[in-house]
Amino acid sequence: MVIKILSLVSSCDSNQQGLCVKNAILVALKSQDVVFLDFSGVTNVTSSFVNSALLDLSPQFDLDTIKSRIQIKRVNRQIGNMIKDRFVSEARLQG
Amino acid sequence: MTPSRLQLPPYLIDHHLFQAFQNFLDENQNLPTEIEVDFSGIIHIKPPSVAFLSNMTHWFRSMGSEVSFLGLDLSNEAIKYLDDSLFFELHQGQKLSPASSCRQTTIPVRQLARRDSHGWLEYTFLPWLIEKSGLTKNSLAEVKSSLQELINNISDHTEFEEGCIFGQWYPKTNKILITVADFGVGIPSNIRTVSPDLSDSDSLVKAAEDGFSSKSLPTNRGAGLYLLLLNIVQRFDGVVTIRSGLGFAKFVNQSGSIYVIQNEKCGYCVGTTIDIVLQTDKIPYEDDNEEEDFEW
Hints:
The structure holds two protein chains of two kinds.
Chain A: E1 2-4, H1 5-8, H2 15-31, E2 35-38, H3 47-53, H4 63-69, E3 70-73, H5 77-94
Parallel strand pairs in A: 1-2, 2-3
Chain B: E1 4-7, E2 11-12, H1 16-27, E3 34-38, E4 44-45, H2 47-62, E5 66-70, H3 77-84, H4 87-92, E6 106-113, H5 114-133, H6 141-157, E7 162-170, E8 175-182, H7 187-192, H8 200-207, H9 224-235, E9 239-245, E10 247-254, E11 257-263, E12 269-279
Helix pairs in contact in B: 5-6, 6-9
């Protein structure tokens, strides 16, 4: 299943927008093994968005499960680095 | 009652304005009901002082003081620069001269609320930055996102919804300077709720550590300032200076690592003022059509 980010939110700046995407991911993961997140048309994301959309899945799914069940498509440098940076930091904090 | 006068120093650069502001607060333990800001002696002003001066004026007014400006001689180049930056239009309702207009090299000083920030960044700031730097939207995505994080921080960490922003392009040196200022409680006060023994400048360094958060909101994970330094200083070889309270911390790139210069004797900054210096010829180019699938 493909979730097109821009079909859910107009931009990726805030916690609220991230929460909207997270809720869509949770619904999709109930019926799908792998969910594709399509960022086409998105030029930048904030840490607040990534935290709420992806890292906050961590109570239900550990970081490795998130990585294996969510595939991220069509990102530019900023979006790719932001997601990597946030997951590296979170993994370090979780020890 | 006679208004209290804040005499601006001749050179509104580096620490001078912050020291003048601190002296004024020291002399006026209770903030006066009427304040005259005297511009008559100013000779030179740099962009961070435009933003702080604007923020200071908003703060005085938010504290209930009436603020008026003196010594506004348009033959003074520094005052002309302020008028062209739309400083007086913002604070007095009109420009000193109808002929004053925003220069090609500046993005005018303005108050920016979080609710308006996305539109302003996307449709005003980014096109200006693209035009001045010659870079693409994708190349500047980290800069845009860093500014969005700073504006988000203002409403997350302060009782106010908006901050002041100002930008200046230096074409000869490929530099763009952006200042974001707010008049919230400031970083040291926030940090001391969890680390009470830190000095003001140490608290600025602490706030920029990866994962450190005062948890002003349950959703905060302490990433905003860390990512600002990672992107602007470490990846793009820029400089970030943070002032808040008595603290001063300047972050520079030294051989690929972030090096910090701290000081506690640079005057007082109400709220937080953050200066970003971008060296645009050091920002890696990325085509706007470049998208790829992400690998974990």
